[in-house]
Amino acid sequence: MHPANIRFDLNDGLSLLDVAASKSGDLILKVLDVQGRIAKTIIEKVEQGAQQLCLNMTDLNEGNYVLNAFWGGTFIQAIRFIKQ
């Protein structure tokens, strides 16, 4: 996994996550609210190479969140976003 190659776009509750992986595996995404509580956990099967994942965030309330990405149990990146 190349952490610098994760990009997150939120639009109308659906988000696009661009990922580049050096091998296949599970990408675990944990969405935390401002109090640090887990609001949502998503596990995506990722294939080797570049791909775009579509994530449904419509079930989240409006507010500030942090998306933490894990690969093989290792933290790789945090992305802050605002759900409006």
What does this molecule look like?
- With 84 residues, the chain is mainly beta.
- The chain has a single domain (3-83), classed as Sandwich (Immunoglobulin-like).
- Helices cover 0% and strands 69% of the residues.
- The protein contains no helices and seven strands.
- The strands form two sheets. A four-stranded antiparallel β-sheet has the order 4-3-6-7, with no helix packed on it. The protein has a three-stranded antiparallel β-sheet with strand order 1-2-5, with no helix packed on it.
- β1 (7-11) and β2 form a beta hairpin.
- The mean pLDDT is 87.
Descriptive terms for the model:
T9SS type A sorting domain-containing protein, globular, 3-stranded antiparallel beta sheet, mainly beta, 84 residues
Short overview:
With 84 residues, the protein is mainly beta.
Question: Topology, please?
Answer:
Layout: E1 7-11, E2 14-21, E3 25-33, E4 38-46, E5 49-56, E6 63-71, E7 74-83
Antiparallel strand pairs: 1-2, 2-5, 3-4, 3-6, 6-7
* Main sheet properties: 4 strands, antiparallel
Strand order of the largest sheet: 4-3-6-7
CATH architecture: Sandwich
CA gyration radius, whole angstroms: 12 Å
The end-to-end span amounts to 30 Å
The top-level CATH class is Mainly Beta
> Helicity, in percent?
under 10%
By helix and strand content, what is the structural category?
mainly beta
